[in-house]
Amino acid sequence: MSQDPSGARPTLLYHTYRLVSGLLLSFAFRKVANKLAAHGVEEIRQRERLGHATAQRPELRAKAPMIWFHGASVGESQAALTLISQLSLRLPQARFLLTSGTATSAVLAAKRLPECCQHQFAPLDAPAAVDRFLKHWRPDAGIFVDSELWPVTLATAAKHGVKLALVNARLSERSLARWRSRLPTARFVFSRFSLILTQNDRVAEELLSLGVDPQRLQAGGNLKAAAPPLPADENLIHRSQALLQGRPIWVASSTHLGEEETILDAHAQLRQRHPHLSLILVPRHPERGHDVEQLITARGLTCARRSKGEEPNSETSVYLADTLGELGSWYRLSPIVFLGGSLKPIGGHNPFEVATAGATVLTGPETFNFAESFPPMIAAGGAKQVTNTQELAQAVDGWLIQPDELDKAKNAARLFATEQAAKLEHLMELLIQGLNLEAKSD
To answer: For residue 215, is it within any domain?
Structure first.
């Protein structure tokens, strides 16, 4: 067991949370197990959420570290995989464990894990589950991506001597207000980290206001900028190009409830000037496919739905790609991508995935999850912001009728992403030094 890293002590609120989480563990497990089962996760793997490992801890050389990464869902897991790939080059004897909480992130992990890494579902934030998990895996370091903070997990890991880092740190307005109303507990929880790397200076200032030790805190940039291009299916791309017969295309991806209406109305306007224009619409949650299809047909637009095995043809106005894992193909197929989660207060989605695929970005104004990325990307000419149907239609139309301007925007987007990705090397140095990982390598 290690000494407390900061002197901050657990509060009555923390002790109460720890007690209640233990009492409610069975109930919480039934809830998450049902959700995993609905996505086809087998029962033995569901029990990973109780801390029951379904894989052996790898054999390690005497000085080689076992490094644990946690990313809540798909986006965070992708960012974690980027760091794992880079750290494995610097620490070739190290072994890695990636945990996450969703079925879709597990599917991603199965496709993209390097040989040096294993995936497990994260233990629920209750003493028994966390203890069981830590006793089996015995990590030397734990790196949490983004903003999912579990007090029992963090406190128990630190007590077991696991050096912890938080990377890509960000706080929503709601979570910031919640932590500010519980400042002693906030100070205790955040002090479990030896190192905190925020997405931007604003988040760093917010964490300082919660009492985070400034010596442990740095603005590290958005880790998602350094992710490799999304995988693309060349057969799918070529097949779609053949079916669409050279028609102009734009993509609206990761759309949420209440956004498709604006997008479809814009598309209907665009079709008046560009009658052969095709929209590939990719809802963030594919299970909404039926509802989105109804929105399409209600506007008199023809639709082919990918989850039904339908394919677009010369008459298809909207191709509803209500499937998972194919964004890389759609981004390669279209030079113009509107990113959802930005017309509603959701925070926006990853513009770097679009830029590295060779497209340019349209976004709504609600991009607080990428507050450090969108303003300079827009200023560089690699993205545009729109707020309503008319502005969205005008932006797409402008690029369709001015291909030279579209090429400039695509190049600006790619250059911006490349420049941001260059910051990854500095971030790795901070992690290796802050978690003493270099000392453990051969």
So the answer is: yes
